[in-house]
Amino acid sequence: MSANHYAIEVEDLVAYYGSRRILDGVSLQVGYGEIMVIMGGSGSGKSTLLRHLLALQTPRSGSIRILGRDITTASADMLHELRQSIGVSFQGGALLSSLTIGENVALPLREHTRLDDSIIEITARLKLEIVSLGGFEHLYPAQLSGGMIKRAALARAMAMDPKMLFFDEPSAGLDPVVSSELDDLIIKLRDTLGVTIVVVTHELESAFKIADHITVLDHGRILISGTADIVRNSSIERVQDLLHRRSRPIEISADDYLHRLTGG
Question: Is residue 11 included in any domain, yes or no?
Fold first, then answer.
C-alpha cells in the first residue's frame, strides 16, 4: 500500500512527560476506511498516543501525518482546518450539561459553518437518528443513561461529516448488551460511510469484534500490530499475558506509579 492510501502515518514517534519517555519509537499506519484498535495495559502509552494523534500534545521527535498532513509541523490555521475533518468521542462523552443533546450535536455546526438554523437543527436530528436517539433531542445529558450519552457523543462527533473518527474507551462503564450495540454501530459507520476509525480500548471482546487491525502497546513500544487473528495467535508472551489477563509480579517505584497514571 502506497503512502497516499494511509489516513494515518506515524513514524518513530517519541514522547516524554518531563524526563520520562512515554512513547519510544512508535510507528504505525492506518488505511482509509479501516478500524484500528489501540490496546495496552495501564501505563502502556495508548492514551498518550491518542492525544498526539489529535495534536493535543507535541512529540519530542518523529512525525504524524493525518489525511496527508504532518500535524507535528502544521500551523494553527492548518490544524483548525484539519480538525473539521475529524470527530472525537471522548470517554465520558464530554457533553455540555447546560445544553440539550440536540444543542450539543448542533454546536460544531454553529461554531464552524454558516448554515441556517433550520438546516443545523435538521442535521442534528439526522445525526441523532443515526445513533438511534431520534426524538430525544430535547433531553439534557443528566437525563440520559450511560449508553445514550455515548451515542449522543458519537452523534456530535459526526456532526461535521468527518472523514475520521476517534473513540476513547467507547465501551467503558457500559453493560455487555449496550457495549455490543455500540460495537455494531461503529462497524456500521465504517461499512456505510467509509469513515476511518481509531479506537483506544482495553475491552478485549470489543476490540476483536470491530478491528480491522490491532496495535498492542506496552511501556511505550509496539509489541505487535496486525489483524485480529495475527494478534490473537501471537507467540509473544507479553501479548498473551495481556489477552489472558495474566499479571506479572513487579516492584514499582513512586515515579513509575505516576507515569502509569499519566501515560495511558
Answer: no
Whether the CB-CB separation of 26 and 215 falls below 8 Å is answered with no
Q: Return the CATH number at 172.
A: 3.40.50.300
Per DSSP, 163 falls in state S
List of E strands, the chain: 6-17, 20-31, 35-40, 61-66, 69-70, 86-89, 164-168, 196-200, 213-218, 221-226
- Cell 509480579 belongs to 249
Work out how many domains the chain is built from and give that number: 1
pLDDT tens-digit series, residues 59-100: 999 999 999 999 998 898 888 888 889 999 887 778 899 999
Tell me whether residue 167 is in a domain: yes
Q: Which residue type is seen at 262?
A: T
232 lies in some domain: yes
DSSP letter at 144 equals S
pLDDT digits (tens, 9 = 90+) for 141-160: 999 988 889 889 999 999 99
Sorted by sequence, the CB contacts under 8 Å of residue 70 that are 6+ apart come out as 63, 64
Q: Which residue range is the domain that position 175 belongs to?
A: 34-47+162-263
Contact 238, 214 (CB under 8 A): no
User: What per-residue confidence (pLDDT) applies to 119?
Assistant: 92
Q: Do the domain assignments include residue 92?
A: no
Model-level pTM? 0.85
Cβ atoms 71, 79 nearer than 8 A? yes
